[in-house]
Specification:
By secondary structure, the chain is mainly alpha-helical. The chain is built from four helices and two strands, in the order αββααα. It has a two-stranded antiparallel sheet. The two termini are about 25 Å apart.
């Protein structure tokens, strides 16, 4: 087995991916409920196309982080640009869902009306920081 030590960037990518995957399984918006005795209506994030795409990018990021530990030699796909590409697709999917929620006037405020929506933003920030750290690690190694 090829020994690769996990770096700070890879840990942040893994944690961000887990947070994003978990957020897609939570509620992204809800209306109703409260004092008016209305029934509460909401939607789990993964039931929507862009959020499902975010889930797939999170799983691909986790696969990319763990892939070097399972091989005997370095993996060519384990490159900082790939992390950046996965982050870009996940951020684009989040932006699509945000635009959709704004158009339907369903942006979850206060945050407890859509925990998954806000947790996904935290996961994207962690993933972005992790991708930056992976780039910095590569740059330090080259110089």
């Amino acid at each position: 087995m090829h020994y690769v030590s996990p770096t700070r960037g890879r840990w942040l990518v893994a944690i961000g991916s887990i947070v994003i995957a978990g957020s897609t399984l939570l509620q992204w918006w809800s209306i109703g409920g409260g004092y008016q005795e209305m029934s509460r209506v909401g939607e789990v994030g993964i039931s929507d196309g862009p959020v499902f795409l975010m889930f797939l990018m999170a799983m691909a990021s986790l696969l990319l982080v763990t892939l070097p530990f399972a091989s005997e030699k370095p993996i060519p796909i384990d490159h900082p640009v790939v992390y950046l590409g996965l982050l870009a697709v996940a951020a684009f999917a989040y932006a699509l869902r945000l635009v959709s929620l704004v158009q339907q006037l369903l942006v979850p405020w206060p945050p407890m009306r859509g925990v998954g929506f806000w947790l996904a933003a935290v996961g994207l920030v962690l993933l972005a920081r992790g991708a930056y750290e992976v780039f910095e690690e590569r740059r330090r190694r080259l110089y």
